[in-house]
Structure formats: C-alpha cells, structure tokens
Amino acid sequence: MPFSRVLTATLGALLLTGAVACAPPDRESAGAQTESGVNAAEATSAEDFGGMEGLVEAAKAEGELNVIALPPDWANYGAIIKAFSDKYGITVNSAQPDASSQDEINAANQQKGRSSAPDVFDLGQSVALAYTSMFAPYKVETFDDIPAAFKDADGTWVNDYGGYMSIGFDSSKVPPVTSVNDLLKPEYQGKVALNGDPTQAGAAFSGVLMVALSQGGSVDDIAPGVEFFRKLKEAGNFLPVDPTPATIESGQTPVVIDWNYTNAAETKKLPSWTVVVPPEFPVAGYYYQAINKDAPHPAAARLWQEFLYSDEGQNLFAQGGVRPVRADNMAADGTLDPTVAAALPVVDGPVTVPTPAQTEAASQYLAQNWAAAVG
Predict the structure, then answer these.
(1) In this structure, what are the phi and psi dihedrals at residue 165, rounded to the nearest 5 degrees?
(2) Each residue of 225-258: pLDDT tens digit?
(3) Who contacts 149 (Cβ-Cβ below 8 Å, separation ≥6)?
(4) Comparing C-alpha atoms, which of 274, 78, 52 is closest to residue 141?
(5) For residue 176, how many other CB atoms are within 10 A of its CB?
(6) Under a CB-based contact definition with an 8 Å cutoff, are residues 160 and 271 in contact?
(7) Distance between CA 231 and CA 179 in Å, rounded?
(8) What residue stretch is flagged as signal peptide (predicted)?
(9) What letters, b where the CB count within 10 A reaches 16 and e where it falls short, cover 73-83?
C-alpha cells in the first residue's frame, strides 16, 4: 500500500515546541557492561547481547528509558509508551512532550553525561540529517524488512512513521478551506497558524513545502512558500502561535497547517474540526528514529527500537493514524492489523517526498529567509 491520494481524516498528535530544563548530576550508566560482558553503548544489534533475551535482561537491569518530545496523542505514543513499560517493567521518563526536533538535540547536548539525557530521538528529516554524528548505529531484528529508502544502511537512523501535510480548520468559526489560496482572504484574518518554526520543526518545514507547491514552486524551489507566508503576514492572517489542542479547542487557532494525523486528532474532541489534504499538492514525510550515542540507558534505548519496529509497535503506530514504515511488507504477510490498515490515509497519484539533499537545500534557504519573511 504505497502512499496514495486522500482527504480522509485519521487519528493522531501534536507537534513540538519548548525548552529543556537543567538536570541533576549523572549516575554512571552509559556504556556499562552487561552480565554477559557486552558494552551496551556499542551494541549494533541484539546479537551483541546474545540475542533478544540478553537485550531484555540488560534493559531491565537499567530499569529506565528517557524519551523526549513525544506527546501522548502524537502517533499514539501514549499507548506505545504504556505498552513498552508494561511489557518489560521499564519506567519510561517522558520529558518535554511539547518540544521541537531541534529542542531534542539541544537537550542531548545540554544534558550530556547526565542520567536525565534523552536516550532516543524522534526527529523531523531536516534536523535528523544535520546531527547524525550524535546517533549510535543499531539494526533492529526487523531491519531487513524496512525498505532501503527509509533507513541508513548502518542503522544510524531509521524512518518510523509518516503522514501527509494538511490544513485543519474549525468549520464553526471560519468558512471552509478549499485551497491554500483561500488563506489569504479577509475571512481568515489573524486565524492561520503553522505548527512550529520550519527551521526547527518537521511539520512546519513540510507545511511551507506544501504551500510552495501550491504557488508554483517545487521541492527544489521552496521560495514561493516563504513568499506566501510573507503575504499572509502582511494581510494580517498569519498567527504566530504554535497550535496545541488547547489553542484549537479554545478557538485561538481556528486554522492550522500541520500533519494530517495531528490535525485529525482534534476531530474526536471538536466535532466541527475538519481536515483537508490538498489533493493537487500532497506532501508526505517520515520521521526519523535514532539512538543517542551518549544514552544514559543504552540497552533500554536499543530495546525501545526493537519494540517500535516489531509487529506490535508498528500496529500501535498505525492505530494513531500514521503509516508505519513496515506497513507495506506487513500488509503483504498479513501482520498489519486490517482494521487500522483500512483507516490509514490514501492518496492517489504523485506525492512529493523530499530527498535528504533537497531537504538540506530547502533548510538552508529557510534559515536565510524565513525570519525576515514573518518576523
């Protein structure tokens, strides 16, 4: 089931903004030897622990896992964290759920050497590719089942789930949004929010790309997207507020450009919330999963990866309305839950997914021009 064309609202999430607090001094854990003598911080597969049983034993001995920037409603992470903790008896410390991808990296740098540092990352493409030197290569047991286009060959990073860029709006407060250009109309004055800063957050980056395509731009020319947001600000329609469930439900941000699964999560709480994936300009994107090479709980970090890419973890992602990276192969072998598979978004026709090189070039343009356009 490749990315295909849609307007279906699915379940899912909230994007990320925030800073990181100071942490207490570290207790020694990173790089500890397991009972079998394996250095957990250097393990590149479960086989380095003697198999999954050895990895589970080492992770349980650590007893904790630090995650960051994982709101409970984002891609079903609340259920995923609970399932992992219940299955292995490991305490999951979830810090700064409203943090951005860049904040995750900042936290790892600021808390390096401390017991509170993030063990794992879940990052947008542009941030992930800029910091691969901070990741520890690791291949999960299902690594060969993940398409080559969605992973680093050495397991330094692996895509975990994806979705489509969308426009969500409260039909009780604004006229129906039928196209990107509608957002320039007077009826949307002070009402259009973008989820995050596109120089720091994957959702915002993809939102600008979607707008660029609607304005005649391309994945290699994101400038029309930046120009559109400049016009949006000049018209008084751009709302410089990072949307959250609270701002949506209160009516503060009645129009939000964000991932379809993030926007669609609000339909459960706000019946008037409507989600549209512009069919002419579908933009898809995957998030990047990686292990912090300085993880204070290196065995637990690796067990977390194994869980996320297992059939159980992938089906839990799908329940959150996102497309798990193993979806196609799992559907073929009958391990993808058919109920959740039927609810996944479908878009017929060409879908824009930027390559790493295109993302890097677009990110450089945004870094040089975004602030001036909307500042």
Answers:
(1) -75, 140
(2) 999 999 999 999 999 999 998 999 999 999 999 9
(3) none
(4) 52
(5) 9
(6) no
(7) 16
(8) 1-23
(9) bbbbbbebbee
